[in-house]
Structure formats: structure tokens, C-alpha cells
Amino acid sequence: MTRSFAVLAIMTAVRPAAGQAQQAGAPCAMQLDSIGGLGRQVEIRPGQVHQFGSGGVWASCRGQDTRMYADSVAWFSERGRVDFVGRVTFRDDGVTLDAERASYFPADERLEAYGAVRLENRDTGSELMGPNLTYWRERPGVRDTAELYATARPTVRYPVAADLTGEPYVIVGQQVRLRGRGHAWAGGAVTVDRVDFGATADSAELDLDGDGGEFVGHAQVTGRGATGYVLTGRRIPFHMTEGKLSWVQAQGLGDAASGDWRLTADTIEFRLDDGQVEGGVAWGDSLRPNALSTTYTMRADSLALDTPGQQLSEIRGFGTAVATARVDSTALEPDWVGGDSLVARFGEGEDGRRLLHTLEARGSARAFYRVLEEGGTLLAGINYSRGRRIVASFRAEGVNRVDVMGAGDGVYLEPKKRPPP
């Protein structure tokens, strides 16, 4: 069979019926543009043929900006399938795909690729790499947008819409699906990495061109940089502002930590600016909010934190709030302050750590604390006080002063006198 006859035969097998115009959105009417080697045709039954071309084959879709190349091509008319083998390249008006082999199904505009697959979306700048890929092209009346599906831990690189030249999302999962310009789903030990945060989860849904997404199942989000943070939960939805993480919420067994504090609760919500936690709130019933600093622990029905520049500034507790000092070996019971609401304010100590400066309790306010001698080394007494409002100030060694306001009362226990020297 001559080369020209092979080209003509394959064109005849896959093109539309005579007189049918190629309309926008119509199935691909494939034609072979050139064959570098030999071609042949086998008629397996009347009206059904298998055709083959080798030596480097170029093909296209009539009337469309779609081009294909492979070392060899096979057309199976009864299956409506074209197989491309060896150095496969597929290019349409939106994507470029390279693979070791591929099968194209013109009737439903589906391309299945295998072996060292790399697909680039030229409109979004995104890239997918993996061992396999199924690509459904956009086709009016069948699907309103293109879709991709890949398995066996493909990697997707996707620039954020706000800055196509900036640091992209890097998504890895056992399965990854992309739909349209910016919707992605991933499942199976998913990892998502960006310049400002990284995340892991059992599955993830991402609006890459929009304002957020959600990590589901053993979810964790980790901030990058010197002031990093770690947030975990059963489910973590998030929002983006101008291409940067701006809001994140851990739902179910929430746990958050940074250098100066740790927070646990059913639900923890943070607001962020330029990759740093600026503040947040926590609430819950099954896991009551608990905030731990380097010096004190606070529990309440709900908590709010202010952390400008990710430096702990203030913790506010509402509903049966209690702040407890870090226990040392000399105390049978730690110092504590409680009330209907509680505000703890922090400042920077000489060693750079965030230290408690004041505790203010309001509504059924109570305080239990040890009074230290000058220098803060020897126990001088124990005090229990009550009032409408209590304000306690601290120094590095412990309580410095306690002011009780409004119908106050209390008990002071003197220490056992020391024996004479």
C-alpha cells in the first residue's frame, strides 16, 4: 500500500459524512496530515476497518486548532478509537500534552494518556505530571468545560489567579481531578504546598482561581517561615485574599500551636495576614477551649486570641473562665484566677519570651495565689480572694499585686514560721 493511499484511507474512516460541515463544539473529524513511513488497512468485516501508520504520523481535527503526533498510529473503526504510540504529543487551543502512548475517542472527545504524562494548560499556566491521565475536552451539549482525571499520585502545579508568575499550588494525591479553569479535587494522602503554607489531608477540594477550599480527614495546615504555626482538625476550610491565605478554621479536634502558645478546642478559627496569625477564636462542647502560653493555661466556654505579627498579646475567655499558672515543684496547688470572663495580657520578657503581665477577671471573680517574699524565693503566705472584679499583675517570679473591687472578701493563710537560725 502506498503512503498516499494510507493517508486517504484513514481520513475517510474518521471524517464526517460527505457534506457535513465541521461546527464549533462538534466531534473531532480526524485527518492524517502526513505519515513518515508505511501504512496499511485491514477490513475485519464489511464497513469495519483497522488502519495503521508508522514512521512518524501527524494528525489533526478538521476545522479545529487540534494537532497530534506519534511515532505510530492505529485506528479501530468499530471502537471509535485512535491509538498513538511513541513520543505522543497532543495540542489543542488550550492544552499541550506529552506521553509515551495515548488513545483518543473522538465521539466523546476523550483522550487517555499513559507513561510519563505531562499536560500544560496554556491559559492558566497549570501543569500536571504523572503516569496516566484522562482528558475530557469541552464540548457544547456534552460537557460545558474541560475535565482532567489522573491516578497513581500525579503532581499538579497551579499558579494562583492573582499572580500567574508567583509561587504555585503544588498538589499531590492518589487521585486528582481538575475541572474548568480552577476547580480541583484530590484524594488519598493529599499534600498541598505553597510558599506561605503547606497542608496534608485524606482529601481536598480547592477553588484555585477563587477564594479557598477545604481539607478533609486528618487535616493539617502548616505556616511557613520563622513564625510558623501548625493547625490540625478533622476538617479545615480556608479562604484566600489576593492569592494569600487569609482565613482558616479547624473543625473537630482542633489543635493549633505556635512558638508562644498552643490552643485546643472543637473549633478553632484564625485570621492571617502575610502568612502570620493575627488572631483567632475557639469554641466547643466536647473539647472545651484550652489556651496554653509559656506561663499560664486558660480554659473557658470560648476563647479569643490577639497575636499581631504572630506575637501573643491578649487572650480573652468567656463563660466560666479560669487561668492557671504553670505548676512548679513547690506548690501543692497552682495559682489561678477565674470569673465569668477573663482577659490575660502579655508582654515581652528579658529573654524574649511572651510573659503574662496582667489577668483581669469580671463577674464572680476569684483568685488563689501565693504571696512571695521580696526577691520571690521564699513562700510568705497564701491568699484566696473574691469580688466583682479582680486584677492581678505579675512579674517573672509570679504574682506581684492583686486588686479586688466590688464587695470583696477573702482568706489569707500565713506560712508556718521559720525556726530561728
In short:
By secondary structure, the protein is an all-beta fold. Helices cover 3% and strands 62% of the residues. It has a 30-stranded antiparallel β-sheet that branches.
Can you describe what's shown?
The chain has 421 residues and is mainly β. It has 3 domains: 1-17 and 27-125, lipopolysaccharide transport protein A fold (Sandwich); 153-287, Lipopolysaccharide (LPS) transport protein A like domain (lipopolysaccharide transport protein A fold); 304-421, lipopolysaccharide transport protein A fold. The protein is built from 1 helix and 30 strands. The chain has one helix spanning 3-14; strands at 30-35, 39-45, 48-53, 57-61, 67-70, 72-76, 81-91, 95-105, 110-121, 127-136, 147-151, 155-158, 169-172, 175-179, 183-193, 197-207, 212-223, 230-241, 244-257, 261-273, 276-283, 290-293, 296-299, 302-306, 314-325, 336-348, 354-372, 379-395, 398-405, 409-413. The protein has a 30-stranded antiparallel sheet that branches. Strand 28 (379-395) and strand 29 form a beta hairpin. The longest helix has 12 residues, at 3-14. Residues 1-24 have low confidence and may be disordered.
Features:
lipopolysaccharide transport protein A fold, disordered N terminus, rod-shaped, 62% strand, 30 strands, 421 residues, 3 domains, mainly beta, single chain
